[in-house]
Design brief:
disordered N terminus, protease, NLP_P60_dom, globular, thiol protease, 17 strands, 12% helix, 5-stranded antiparallel β-sheet, Papain-like_cys_pep_sf, alpha+beta, 6 helices
């Protein structure tokens, strides 16, 4: 049941500049009523950034934890308000409750207070004392600006189209990709610039051009690159080997030194071993799956971990062929990594960016 607001929250007009090789300046349109998240409920405008042991002391405290090495901010009652993992830019902040669902394809839904955001720098022990973090935290803790989850759901079936100032759609219902000549399987390797239909220049100077038949298409790794890279501005590699940042494919991401390996690939190739302990996962982690014997030792699929659904199962969102686009749906296998379902049985590793 929603809580009453304890104080009003003033929001600045937020502009997200997304600059591609075409010279287009993509501006996020925040006035779309359909894209708004629920109103904030209780937000601490100026948190107490003092160090502490995590004990219930009547004030917010910072605490160090292991496996993985991370820092958590606890509230006066000992509850976790935010988590920051060493060497990762991903931060999970507690905020207003939201519901994510896709009724056209599943009865499952996720009701969460987790807001996943990217910090400007990777976290290091003691960063809570640094000015860059204090400035960032003051701006985003309690903010209702689109986070990683909100962005991801802007590409599911029926998601409204959003256009930049040049009229280019940067969000809206995405497909996985066009059919292969056999009319059964779908073509892969559909990246974010294919969806956009504009050329893109990466940080290493490489410019890649879209293919007309892939317009509005995002394969599983292309979907993650759209959400984390083009929209949230995480650095992107042009391929798996050129440049720096998030690689092009699921296997490239899984094996990259980028971010932090939360669950490492284990067991004998090519199928490896299903993890026995997945309690270390945190909302926002990238999940990797081994699904196809034809790809040798490669990881074949990548997804975004959302946390627990309303039935207590660990749920994810990904772009897949069966549903033809981003989904939390059940077609081709329920979007869960616990139990004995299709994806649960093929889950292999996880990374925190």
């Amino acid at each position: 049941m929603p809580l009453k607001k304890k104080r009003p929250v003033l929001h600045a007009v937020t502009v997200l500049a997304l600059l591609g090789a075409s010279g287009y300046l993509t501006v996020e349109l925040r006035k779309d009523e359909q894209a708004k998240t629920p109103a904030a409920q209780a937000v601490i405008d100026e948190p107490n950034l003092e160090n502490g042991s995590g004990q219930q002391s009547g004030k917010q405290t910072w605490e160090r934890l292991k496996n993985p090495a991370r820092t958590v901010l606890r509230g006066a009652g000992g509850q976790v308000l935010a988590t920051f993992t060493d060497h990762a830019r991903t931060a999970t902040l507690r905020g207003p409750s939201r519901t994510f669902s896709e009724p056209a394809n599943t009865a499952s839904k996720v009701v969460t207070e987790d807001w996943v955001r990217l910090m400007p720098e990777p976290w290091t022990k003691g960063a809570e004392k640094e000015q860059w973090f204090k400035d960032w935290f003051k701006e985003y803790y309690g903010s209702e600006e689109d986070d990683i989850f909100a962005i991801a759901f802007q590409y599911v079936q029926g998601a409204p189209v959003k256009k930049d100032s040049e009229g280019i759609p940067y969000a809206g219902d995405a497909v996985f990709g066009p059919f292969k000549p056999d009319g059964v399987d779908r073509l892969e390797q559909n990246d974010f610039y294919d969806y956009l239909g504009i050329p893109y220049t990466f940080r290493n100077g490489t410019t890649l051009s879209p293919r007309q038949d892939r317009y509005r298409a995002l394969d599983c790794s292309g979907f993650m690159r759209m959400v984390w890279g083009y929209r949230a501005r995480y650095p992107l590699m042009a391929t798996n080997s050129s440049g720096d940042g998030l690689p092009r494919t699921a296997d490239g991401m899984a094996r990259s030194k980028t971010g932090v390996d939360i669950i490492k690939i284990q067991g004998p190739a090519p199928w490896y071993t299903r993890p026995t302990n997945i309690d270390v996962l945190q909302p926002g982690d990238l999940l990797f799956f081994k699904m196809d014997h034809r790809t040798g030792n490669h990881m074949d699929h990548v997804a975004l971990y959302l946390g627990l659904d309303t039935e207590g199962h660990r749920m994810f969102i990904s772009s897949r062929k069966e549903q033809n686009g981003p989904t939390i749906g059940d077609k081709g296998g329920v979007s869960r990594i616990d139990g004995n379902g299709f994806y649960a049985g093929l889950f292999r590793s996880a990374k925190r960016l």
